[in-house]
Design a protein that fits this description.
Largest sheet: 2 strands, antiparallel
Order of helices and strands: HHHHHHEEEEHHHH
Mean pLDDT: 88
Strand order of the largest sheet: 1-4
Number of helices: 10
Helix content: 55-70%
Strand content: 5-15%
Shape: extended
Radius of gyration: 24 Å
Length: about 230
């Protein structure tokens, strides 16, 4: 059900992009969402002089209407199913996850006991920092000696679940603008940390909190959970 909903969201986005591309290719400004409104479609169609182009735009609008209806039905089915899961109410308490993201987490993770620690969960989400080093040895005379060299950061791990990485990155972006994470995010920025890395820290904390309350079956406690996830 989650996959069906995601496919319909992607199809809807694709058609919306094609509609805007059609108008922009003819020098017609179409910023915002007004071009998609059903009550304004005739006004937008009147701006297209060529019959073939107008027919194509009408076809795209019809596709958009059908896809929006299908997406709405798929979303309701997905949410109805996810609400039957015993973890639904617990995960809904995590800030900025929301119904759709909770459904995506439940459908993908299935059980939190797959992950012994939060670090394993971070790696599954693509939020684990990869540390590597090279040139650890050098020749001194006729002997090979190992050099004490600190590992260098090589970014985040690439072998991960792309759906859940998107879920927690989006949730972290929203969480940085409100409590209980806003204060922590601003403190990181005040320390001179890059905003991207600060959001990554918030995403990792959200993931750790999600795993902790799901495993323990406990309600979300902002103060206590923030300390445990640190």
């Amino acid at each position: 059900m989650v996959r069906t909903y995601e496919c319909l969201v992607a199809d809807t986005t694709r058609v919306m992009n094609r509609i805007k591309a059609l108008f922009r290719s003819r020098g017609i400004a179409c910023a915002g969402h007004d071009v998609y409104r059903q009550d304004r479609r005739e006004q937008w169609l009147e701006k297209l002089d060529e019959r073939g182009v107008r027919a194509r735009a009408e076809s795209l609008y019809q596709q958009l209407a059908v896809l929006k209806e299908l997406r709405h039905v798929a979303r309701q089915r997905m949410l109805t199913e996810s609400r039957q899961h015993k973890a639904y109410k617990l995960l809904m308490e995590v800030p900025k996850l929301g119904q759709v993201r909770v459904a995506q987490v439940i459908a993908t993770v299935d059980t939190p006991h797959r992950f012994r620690t939060k670090r394993q969960f971070w790696a599954y989400l693509g939020l684990a920092v990869v540390m590597r080093t090279s040139a650890e040895y050098r020749m001194i005379g006729q002997a090979v000696q190992k050099i004490k060299r600190a590992p260098a950061t090589r970014g985040l791990n690439t072998n991960h679940n792309h759906r859940l990485k998107g879920v927690f990155k989006a949730a972290a972006t929203s969480a940085c603008a409100s409590e209980p994470f806003k204060q922590q995010y601003e403190a990181l920025l005040a320390q001179g940390i890059d905003p991207t890395l600060a959001r990554l820290t918030v995403a990792r904390k959200l993931a750790a909190i999600t795993l902790a309350i799901w495993k323990r079956g406990e309600s979300f406690d902002a103060e206590r959970m923030m300390k445990q996830a640190a």
